[in-house]
Amino acid sequence: MDEDEAQKQRLKAAVHYTVGCLCQNIATDCEKQITKQTIAAIAETAFRQCDIFAKDLEAFARHAKRHTVTVDDVKLTARRTTALSNYIQQKSEELALNNQELKEKRKKNAAKRKSKDMEAEEENELED
Amino acid sequence: MANAGNEVVFKKETVSKLLTRSFKEDKTKVSSDAVILVAEMLKVFVEEATRRSVKQADSEDCDTVDIEHFEKILPQLLLDF
């Protein structure tokens, strides 16, 4: 139980740190000060919101008879506001594009390595 | 975490742990792309919360964003998410 509590505190602290950075940047941008209390409140709310996200995501995945939460589940979570839904859609398309580029890079590298290996083998055979 | 280029994001590991500790079933996992998207959602959530609080403070002619400003925008924020 204690370890669970310790992990929770560590996660909260990590969230709080990132939230603090985000808040400060925006406040500075808008030329305003923001109190530490406010940052703490936003961090706590974000932490709890994540719990809500997780439960929704798990429910969606289970509904689709899956054990792994996918990008489609996240898109569903963002359904309430059109702007948010569009933003997430855009991000998921960027991700898919990135993954494809990475795949193609790897294929090229694998092909390169294969031809290099074959050349090396041929050289060895000649030497023998 | 702040990176060069001034982009603050939630770390994948943090988000992943946050999600898995809230799952009811042990079998449930998250794909790595989904983790990235949830990190984005959280970032948008925090940015919205902050910007709306700033707007609220603005409308009350305050230079400092106080917790009461956040409290006023919180209900609509939660409904929008």
UniProtKB/TrEMBL annotation, chain A:
PANTHER family: CENTROMERE PROTEIN S, CORTISTATIN. The lineage of its organism: Eukaryota, Metazoa, Chordata, Craniata, Vertebrata. The keyword Oxidoreductase does not apply. Keywords: DNA damage, DNA repair, DNA-binding. One of its GO terms (cellular component) is FANCM-MHF complex. Transmembrane segments: none annotated. It comes from Cirrhinus molitorella. GO terms for biological process: DNA repair; replication fork processing; resolution of meiotic recombination intermediates. CDD domains: HFD_CENP-S. GO terms for molecular function: chromatin binding; DNA binding; protein heterodimerization activity. Belongs to the TAF9 family. CENP-S/MHF1 subfamily. This is Centromere protein S. InterPro entries: CENP-S/Mhf1, Histone-fold.
TrEMBL record, chain B:
It holds the Pfam family CENP-X. Keywords: DNA damage, DNA repair, DNA-binding, Nucleus. One of its GO terms (cellular component) is Fanconi anaemia nuclear complex. Signal peptide: none annotated. It is found in: Nucleus. GO terms for biological process: DNA repair; kinetochore assembly; replication fork processing; resolution of meiotic recombination intermediates. Transmembrane segments: none annotated. Its main location: nucleus. InterPro entries: CENP-X, Histone-fold. One of its GO terms (molecular function) is protein heterodimerization activity. PANTHER family: CENTROMERE PROTEIN X (PTHR28680). Heterodimer with CENPX, sometimes called MHF; this interaction stabilizes both partners. MHF heterodimers can assemble to form tetrameric structures. MHF also coassemble with CENPT-CENPW heterodimers at centromeres to form the tetrameric CENP-T-W-S-X complex. Forms a discrete complex with FANCM and CENPX, called FANCM-MHF; this interaction, probably mediated by direct binding between CENPS and FANCM, leads to synergistic activation of double-stranded DNA binding and strongly stimulates FANCM-mediated DNA remodeling. Belongs to the CENP-X/MHF2 family. This is Centromere protein X. It comes from Cirrhinus molitorella (mud carp).
